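Page 47, continued from p. 46.
Same chain as before, 253 aa.
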Amino acid sequence: MSLLEVEHLTKNFGGLSAVANVTLSVEADEIVGLIGPNGAGKTTLFNLLTGVYPPTEGKITFAGNDVAKLAPYQVAMLGVGRTFQNIRLFKDLTVLENVMVALHPTNSNLLTSILRLPGYYQRIAQQEAAALKMLEFFDLADKAAIKASNLPYGQQRVLEIARALAMKPKILFLDEPAAGMNPNETNELTQLIRKIHQEFGVAIVLIEHDMSLVMEVCQRICVLEYGRVLKIGTPQEVQNDPQVIAAYLGGDA
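Result:
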C-alpha cells in the first residue's frame, strides 16, 4: 500500500466541481509535483488531503488510515504537514517560538503546566533545544530571537517549512513554496527541498508554477485541469505530452 492513496475524490461547491474524480497515490520516498493552470483545483485538493475540506465523494487513505472525515489537527497528528500559498506564521512570535509551537506535546500534564512544576521547565528546555536544532538545519539559528515578521520574505517561506517539519511528518505538502521568490532564492529552495527529502526521509507533494523547480526535483508529476487529472507521469512524460503542452505549458497539441 502507498503512503497516500486517493480514490475518485470529488469536491463540489454548489454546482461547481472544484475537484472531480481524482485518483492518485504517493509513495513514502517520493517527491510529487502538482501542476495545472490557475483554478485547476490544486489548492482545493491540498485542502481535501489535509482535512480543511471534507470531500463530497471519494476516499483518502493515509498510512492505512481513512482520513476523509478527520479534522485538520487529527490529520496532522497522523503525520501530515503542510505550508500555505499565503505565508501563515505567528508573526508576533520569534523565529524560535514559531518552531516550538509545532513541538507542543500532545501528552503534556495539565497540572504540571499550571503549577509550573519541574517537569514543565524540563519539557520547555527540550522543546527549545529541538527547535534550535531544526533552525540550524535551515540556517536560521542566528535569527532565533527576532520576530518572524522581521525575516526577509524568502526566509519566512523557509521558516514555515521548518515549522511544518518540526512535527515530524511522514508527508509534507508545500503549496507554492517558490511564490514571490527571486531566481536565486528559488535555486536555493530547489536544493533545500532535495536536502529535506534526503535528510528527513519524508514524502513531499508540492504545488508550484515554477516549472524549472518542478522538473528538477519531482520524480512524478500530476497535472490537473478543471479539477480533473489530465496526466500523471515522469517529468519527461509530462513535458512531452501534447495535452499538457496545450493545456498548461503553452503550445499546440
